[in-house]
Design goal:
By secondary structure, this protein is an alpha/beta fold. The chain has a single domain, classed as Alpha/Beta hydrolase fold, catalytic domain (Rossmann fold, 3-Layer(aba) Sandwich), CATH 3.40.50. Helix content is 33%, strand content 15%.
Length: 345
Amino acid sequence: MIEPFTHTALLDGTLRNLYFPPEKDQYAYFKRAAQSPFVQGDTITKAAWAADASMLSYARYNATDRMSDDDLKANFDRAGLNAYRKIGVTPWQWTAPGPKAVFACCADFAILAFRGTEADDSGDAFYDADILLVPEHDYRPSAADPHPALQHLTSITQPFSRPCLVHRGFQMALGQLWDQVHQAVCDYRQQYPDKEIQFAGHSLGGALALLAFSRFSDEHISLYTFGCPRVGDGPFRDRVLSNPGMGQFRFVNLNDVVTHVPLESLLYRHVPAQCYRIDQQGNIDEASDSFHVDIQALDKAVHGLPASLRAGLLREDASNIPAPSSVVDHSPARYCMRLWDCVEP
C-alpha cells in the first residue's frame, strides 16, 4: 500500500466539480514538476503527471470559461514541455464539439493526453453510449519492421492475429483523431527514437488512450488511464497486454462509477484487470473489479441522483448540487490531488 505524504483538501462533491476541471485559482497544474521530475519518476509520480495532463486537455475552468492558449502554454512550460500541438477535428477551434487530444513534448519525453467526456458536448455522450462491439484489426507492425511506431492503419501487417472486439463509440471517436495522433507520434519518434511517450486520459479520454496504445508496437510508449470505462473483450485485453512498452497502468478513485461500465461480461474486460485503487484516506493499493461491484456502484449512483436529474431534467443551477459519492469519485481533480499527495515531497 502507498500512503499519502500530504492530504490536499478536495473540492466540494458537486456536479460542477464532476463536470469541469477546477477554477483557475483552485489548482496549479504541474506545481511540483521541478521537485518531482517525470524522467526520474516512479509509477505514482508519472501517474500524477499523466493525471495533470489529462485534466489539462479539457482546457477549461467551468461551463463558460475556456482556458486561453497563453494559460495552456504556461501550464505546459511549468512542466518543461516546451512544445505542444492541439489535436481535434477542428484543432484551430478547440472549443468546437468533438473528441480532442493534446501532444506535449520536450527532448526528454512526451505526453499524449486525450480529453474526456464534456457535459456540454452531445457528441461525447453519443460516443459513450454506443456500446456495440465491433471488430478491431491488429494494426501493429510485425517485429521485423525497422520502424514499428511508424506503421499506419492503411497497412495491416498482422492479418492473421487473433480477432478482437471493441466499443464502437470509442473506435469512432478515435477515428476522428487518428491521422493527427499518428502523425504527432511519428514526428516525435523520428526525432527522439528512444524517449518515453506517455499515453494518458481521463474517462472517455482514457478509453481513447487505451485504444490508441493498442495500435502501436513501441517499447518506449506507456499507458496511464484514470476513471476509464471498459473498452473491449478478452482478446482485446490480451492484445494490449502483449504490447511491448513501458507498462499499462489503470487508476480508479474509490468506487468511480464510470469504471464499472459497460458491465463486466464475456464481452467486456478491463485492461489491465488489476488497477491502482485510491481509498477514502488517499491510500493507493492494487485491486480488481467484479460484476457484483459493478451492480452495487451503478445502483448507488442512480439512486443517489436528485429526482430531477434521474428524470432527465437538468436545471441551470444543477451543477451546484451535491452528487452521489460514486459519481463524484469520477472527478478528474480528485485523481490529480490524490496522486500528487502520494508523491514524495
